[in-house]
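If you are new to this repository, start here. Below is one unmodified record pulled from the training split, so you can see the exact layout before writing a loader.
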Amino acid sequence: MDKSKQPFRKSKRSFRRRLPPIGSGDRIDYRNMSLISRFISEQGKILSRRVNRLTLKQQRLITIAIKQARILSLLPFLNNEKQFERTESLPRTTGPRTRNK
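And here is the target side for that same chain:
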């Protein structure tokens, strides 16, 4: 067979399977801060299921636990440490200003 008539074949790559982020012994609970804090971004947002590599049921339980911890003020709703750090802005210069009298 010439190359033009060969069927399309996927290249076989070896994958290293990643371990699930939640072990079988880990309990998803609002008091388990070490577990919950792994699924929150630096800004305080809940990370998506695709990023976390969680099952749908695990993501739901994590989301509920995070919300409960926020309500009980174990976690902040926002992590706004860097929100107010701004560099000095240059003054606006759009052109000469004239005053109307």
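Two things worth knowing about this chain: Residues 31-70 form a domain with the 30s Ribosomal Protein S18 fold (CATH 4.10.640.10). The first helix runs from residue 33 to 36.
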